[in-house]
Amino acid sequence: MTGLLTAFVLAAVTALAGCTTHIADSLPASVGGLPERVPARSESPAEFPAVHDRPPARADAPLNEAERKKLKDDLIATRDRAARLAPKAEAPAKKKVAEPAAKKKKPEPAATGSISAAGTAPNP
């Protein structure tokens, strides 16, 4: 008997679960309904399909090898035609760059070793 009662309660709860949004709309906020500032529900259904809905099958089939080759050849011919019709761009004139001045050699210090090139004695 308790199994039958449990099944009946579960069926009733399941049936009422689908109506909860309508019930919540009509209940006052003090009893557990929606607050006063909540905007009204839209009359039209949502614009986007449900997650589980699949789009219809495509009418177009993918290209076969002959159609791919023809399309590739058409694209290559269009590219070559556009390259022939494009005005030839002149190469920019090369500017002559001044040659750097010859590197000056630094004078070698005296062979005596007692005075450095700067004219001071080296540190011990």
Descriptive keywords:
124 residues; mainly alpha; 3 helices; 35% helix; elongated
Structural topology:
Elements: H1 2-17, H2 20-26, H3 65-85
Unreliable stretches covering 5 or more consecutive residues:
none
Strand content: under 5%
Describe the main β-sheet briefly.
Answer: none
- The number of helical runs is 3
Summarize the structure in words.
The protein is mostly helical. It has a domain at 1-34. Helices cover 35% and strands 0% of the residues. The protein is built from three helices and no strands. The radius of gyration is 45 Å and the shape is elongated. It starts with a helix and ends in a 39-residue tail after the last helix.
Briefly, what is this?
With 124 residues, the chain is an all-alpha fold.
